[in-house]
Amino acid sequence: MWKSTVDWLVFTVFGLSANDHLAKALHFFIxxxxxxxxxxxxxxxxxxxIRSFFPPERTxxxxxxxxxxxxxxxxxLLGIVTPFCSCSAVPLFIGFIEAGVPLGVxxxxxxxxxxxxxVALIMLWGMFGxxxxxxxxxxxxxxxxxxxxxxxxxxMERHVEDYVYQIQMAEAEIPNSSWPERIxxxxxxxxxxxxxxxxxxxAGIAIGGLMHGYAPQDLLTQIAGKTNPLAVPIAVLIGVxxxxxxxGVIPIIKVLMDKGMAIGTVLSFxxxxxxxxxxxxxxxxxxxxxxxxxxxxxVVALGIMMTGYLxxxxx
Length: 315
Known about the structure:
- There is one protein chain.
- By secondary structure, the chain is mainly α.
- The chain has one domain (2-169, 178-314).
- It is 75% helix and 0% strand.
- It is built from 16 helices and no strands.
- It starts with a helix and ends with a helix.
- It is found in: Cell membrane.
- Belongs to the UPF0718 family.
- This is Permease.
- It is a multi-pass membrane protein.
């Protein structure tokens, strides 16, 4: 129904031809803007309800009870429903270490939480379907688990800044919210997230619309298609310094896929942007010595590239 409404608006009200580049770009922009904001509002509300059961204090307490491997799996899964921004990486890291959470388990959470976030999941589901969304979740969780296991087995605790182990944080009370409080929190969280990301969403969809209407398909296929063996590492290298909200990236990569970019390359690019951002690396340097920080970036980048090549080969 919504598609037919947009068709009527673009082709009848605006009087544009279906073959016009402008019509294609405008149709993409209007259709996807409304659809994405609707999906964001509904699903972020649901995610916020789940998130209200897992405040940082409870997450630390859960993870401190389990040994490595089991802890890595739980940390990666909890990272999905407890996303954090770059600015909270340091206090979360210190809190986990102080609570006795193993280093490798902590890194599984640090990788999963920003990489597999609800905004990216919702937009992938809405624009590509559930298959791609599930692929994204499974890939991100596996990368988080394997990265945490590898870092844990390397026994790199000595490469954490010394002051981290000397900090004694007070035990915070775990809040026990009522359902009205959870619903109120979820409503506020929806407005908070939308207020932060709406410029990225609109800008991303606008750029995606222009590319959908005007970008030449053959050129994009040649540069980032399956036939280019360097497409995946190039996508990761570009994504790391490109600090961007996933909401602004996904509308663009949808068009890139429509124009011929392989799905593995697309996933690699998006995961590098969300999971290996340069600002997060700069902030983590406050608690990690250069060797461990380099290992963290290297292991995660390798996992992302392997995922990209795997999906380019399978699909």
